[in-house]
Amino acid sequence: MPGKSVPISVRISDEDASFLAGLEVPGAITPSEKVRVLIWYARRIRSGEIDIAGSVQAFSELLSPVERAVVKAEQETGVHSELVAVVLRWLPEMQSFLGDTGRHVRSDPGTESLSRIEAGIADRVFGLFDHVLRLGVTVENPCYEKTAVTRRAGLVSRLFTLVESASKELKQ
Question: How far is CA 51 from CA 6, 30, 44, 118, 150, in A?
Answer without folding.
Answer: 28, 27, 9, 19, 37
